[in-house]
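[Q] Does anyone have a clean structure-token version of this?
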Amino acid sequence: MESSTVGAVENRIEQLTGKLSSLRSEIAKRVVGQEEAVEDVLLCLLTGGHGLLEGVPGLAKTMLIRTLADALDLDFSRIQFTPDLMPGDITGTEVIEEDRSTGRRVTRFLHGPVFTQVLLADEINRAPPKTQAALLEAMQEGHVTAGGAVMDLPTPFFVLATQNPIEQEGTYPLPEAQLDRFMLKISLDYPDSREEVEVLRTTTGGAAEAVEPVLSGQEILELQTLVRGVAVSDVILEYTALLVRSSRPGREESLGVTNQWVRWGAGPRAGQSLILCAKAHALMSGRLHVTPDDLVRVAPAVLRHRILVNFQAEAEGRTADEIVEALLAGVTPPRSDLL
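[A] Here you go.
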């Protein structure tokens, strides 16, 4: 490749990654703190995956997604999940119309809110499984089947869902098959003392600062292509596979903590998500190659919803996050000279 071409590619990469910094700045106009959650949401954006945000009320889950949508030049829809929400309220429905000039009746499909680019599924666990499942095809295949026709969704397309972990009455926990469709499960925690003071200052004064769009759909697709091109060595792939396989009880690679506390370990999709998110994290860090540190950073959000703890772990108060931490400590990363 000629040096001028290489220089143009490097300049384009620098431009696009620079816009990610601008995107963070736009989000910070409304969302105080939560840097790790913001970065995880950007990982979803760069990998073309979907994210499930979990946290107690008031931690800016919905505000974060709404602000991200404002900072992107993309179509945005919000669905408030409730027990009476029906699948057609998500995907759309067929209606019968009469042509006044001919008197003939024809059917027409009215697109639902899923036909967008950024979809906020607010409090997704408040709708019954039949309605939750209406999102499965859209999330996995990027299209909707209705009335015998397959209709493609616009690109880029990604779903960001929220749920509250402390209210269980009147909720329907997502089945494991649907949880696995989310690339990341993003956990939001309480702000620290400084951030909480800043929240009080910024939300009880004048109008919030306007958020300007900084990334277009085409630029996001370019970034997703760049992520796929980030280099990953065979030893990193082997390390990732061993990390995932060590989460499965009763196997040769299983760790003691796995056999003690895990009922079901992570599947192959977990390894795919680990590599893609590690590539995206490397790109966001200004590198075009993956290191073990990238995998360690993204592992909790990738694995916490793909590892099912057993009864003993529940009785002892152990969480999936603790098991992921033990896996990262128990599986030795490759030496730097082998990368």
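[Q] Thanks! Anything notable?
[A] The chain has a mean pLDDT of 86.
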